[in-house]
Amino acid sequence: MSQASAPIRSTSHESSAPNVRKGRSPNVLGLIGTFFTLVMAAIWVFPLYWAVVTSLKRENDVLISPPDFFPNPLTFDAYISVLRQSLILRWYWNSVLTALVITFLVIVLCMICAYAISQLEFPGKTFLYWLFLAGFMIPAQALIVPLFILMNDLSAINTYQGIILPQLMLPITIIIYKQFFDAVPRELRDSAMIDGASEWRILFGIYLPINWGITWALSIITFIGAWNNFLWPFIVTTSEPMMTIPVGITQVTDQFGVQYARTMAVAVLAGLPVAVVYLIFQRRVTEGIMATAGLKG
Amino acid sequence: MTSGRQKRKWRMWRNAFVLVAPFTLLYLLFFIYPTWRVLQLSLYDAQLIGGEQTFIGLENYRDIWEDPLFWRSVRNTLYFVLLTVIPNTALGLVFALMVVRLKRLRSMVLAAFFLPYILPVSVVTLIFQWIFDSQFGVAQIAFQTFFDENIAVFANPNWAMPMIAFVTIWWTVGFNMLLFIAGLQGIGKDYYDAADLDGANNLQKFLYITWPLLWPITTLVLTLQLILQLKIFDQVFLLTGGGPFNSTIVVLLYMYRQAFTRFDGGYSSTIAVALFVLILVAAIFQVRVLRSGRST
Lengths: 297, 296
Known about the structure:
Chain A is an all-alpha fold. Helices cover 70% and strands 0% of the residues of chain A. Residues 1-20 of chain A have low confidence and may be disordered. The longest helix of chain B is centred in the first third of the chain and has 40 residues, at 2-41. Chain B has a two-stranded antiparallel sheet with strand order 1-2. Chain B has helices at 2-41, 59-65, 68-100, 106-114, 121-131, 139-147, 157-185, 189-197, 202-230, 234-239, 251-260, 265-295; strands spanning 44-45, 54-55. Chain B has twelve helices and two strands, in the order H-E-E-H-H-H-H-H-H-H-H-H-H-H. Chain B has two domains: 2-41; 68-295, MetI-like fold. Chains A and B meet through helix 2, helix 4, helix 5, helix 6 and helix 11 of A and helix 1, helix 3, helix 4, helix 5 and helix 7 of B.
C-alpha cells in the first residue's frame, strides 16, 4: 500500500484532483476538510456538552466567571434535588404511557387500514385514500381550537385519552404501509386464500413478518414524535400531575428561577430517553425518517 | 356460481370495512370534523367555551384584514422563514457533504449533527436560555469579545428573531442532512469515475454532477422546510413568548393568544384559516419557482 501510494500521489498531484473518495493516500486538502468537519461537529455538540456539564456542577459553581469547562467538583446534587422536588417522575410515567399507547395504536390501526386499501376491493376506497392524502395539506396545529372545544365537550381535558386521541392522526403511516404492502408479491396472498386463511391470518402471518423492518422504523419514530410533542399536550393539560415531560419541564424553570444546575439536570433527564433510543436504533430512526419524507431509506 | 361470487364480494367488503373503520372513524372525529369546525367557527362571533354563538358572515375576515397585529405576525413569520429555510437547507447539504466523505469517524460525526433533532423542543429552549443567559450565559463571552457588552438576545427586538432562527437551525439541520446523505448515496459512482477520466476537479464534479443530480432532494427539502417553518410556534412561545414588544409574534402564536388568553373562538379560527391559506399559497408559489429552477 505504502509502496504503491508514491507513484499514485505524484500522478494525482499532476491532475491536481484531491480525491479522498477513491481512497488514494490522504492529502493536505482532505486533512483540512476532516479537521474542519471535526471542529464543526464539536461546535454542534457543545450545547449538549454544556448542558451536561452544568447539570453536574454545584449551583454556586455554575455562576463562576470565567466558567469552568469541566465540573469541579463533580456532583449529582442537582439531579437528586430535581428528582425529589419536582414531579418529573410522574411526567416520565405520563410520557412513557401516552407515547407507548400512541405508538401501539398508530401502528396497528394504520397497518390494518393500509392492508385493506392495498389488498382489498371495496366501494369508496379511492375516496378514502384521497381523504388521508388531503390530511397532509391541513396543519394540525391550526386545529387546536376546535380540538380543545371538542375535548372539553368530551370532558377529556387533563386526561390520558385527551392527550392521546388527537395524536393518533398520522395518516402518513397508512400511506407508507400501503406502499410496502403493494410491493408484497401477490402470489403469497393468493395461495394463502386457497388454503382458506382469513384476512387477519394473511396480514399478521404474511404481510407483517415481511415488513417487520419498516414496522420497527415507524414504531420508533412515532414513539420519539409522541414523546417530543409539545403543543397539543401543553394545550390539553392544565394540571401539573397530568403533564408530559416536554410540557412539565417548562414549569420547573418557573419554579426554580435562575438555578441553572437544576434546570439543566431537568433538561438532561428529559432528553436522555430519546437520545438513548436514537443511539441504540440509529439505523431504524434513519429509515423511518426517510420513509416519512417520501424516500425509501 | 354467481351467488358464490356475490357472497365472496360481500365478505371482502365486510372485511375491508372492519379493517378500515377504526382509524377512519377516529380520523373523521379528530381531524375532519375539527377542520370543518374551524371553517365554521371563523364565520361566528363565538367564545372559546360556552356563551352565545352568533353568525356574522365574513366579519372576522374583514377584521383580520384590518388588524395590524395580524399582519405583523404574518411579516414576522415570513421573516422567520427567510432566516431559516435556505440557510437550514444549505447547511444540511454542507454537513451531508462533510459526513459522506468520512470513513471511520462517520457514524460519530453523523450522530453529533443529528442528535439535537431528536430532542424535545423544550429541552432545546432550556439549554439555549442558559447558554444565552444575559449575565452568566457562556455565549456572553463571545458577545463581550465582539460587542464589548452582554446582550440579552431574547429580550432584544433586533436579536430575538435571528436567534430563534439560529436555535431552530441547530435543532433541525440534522433532518435535512439525513435527506441529503440519502441523495448523495443515490448518485452512482460511475459518474465520478467518468469525471476522473476527464480530469475534472472536485468543484467541477460538484457543479456538474452532484448539484444537478441532487436537485430533486433539494426541492424536497426546501418544500418540507417552507411548510414546516410557516407553522413556527413552539420555539417562539418558549423563548420569547412573542416579545419583546411583539417583535417575534408569529401567526400561530397570535392564534394561540386569541384562543387561550382572550378566549375568542371565532377570531382565532379565522387566523387558523388564514394560516392554512398562507401555507397553500406558499406551497404553490414554491412549486412554481422550483420547477422553473430545474429547467434553467
